[in-house]
Amino acid sequence: MEHLTIxxxxxxxxxxxxxxxxIRLASKVNTHILQCDLCRKKVSAFQTVYDEFLSNNxxxxxxxxDVHKLCDSMDDDIITEDFR
Length: 84
Ligand SMILES: [Zn+2]
Prior knowledge:
The protein is mostly helical. It has helices at about 5-15, 20-35, 35-55, 65-70. It is globular, with a radius of gyration of 13 Å. Zinc ion (ZN) binds near residues 4, 32 and 39.
């Protein structure tokens, strides 16, 4: 089984516009995390970090989330080799 990529997860967590591609991504992610504990944990970890990120940056423009900053704030053991 092919795991979700970090990019998939980041895009999924940061979806702000519902369009054809975000719906496709959401269904891909949801289908996968139903059967994969590892990716479910990563998605939920990203969601937690992203929520904190948004609340820490509430006074700034929420549409300009710095994905690299988001990744930097993740624990190293969340983004690991087994993710590839
Ligand atoms: Zn997976």
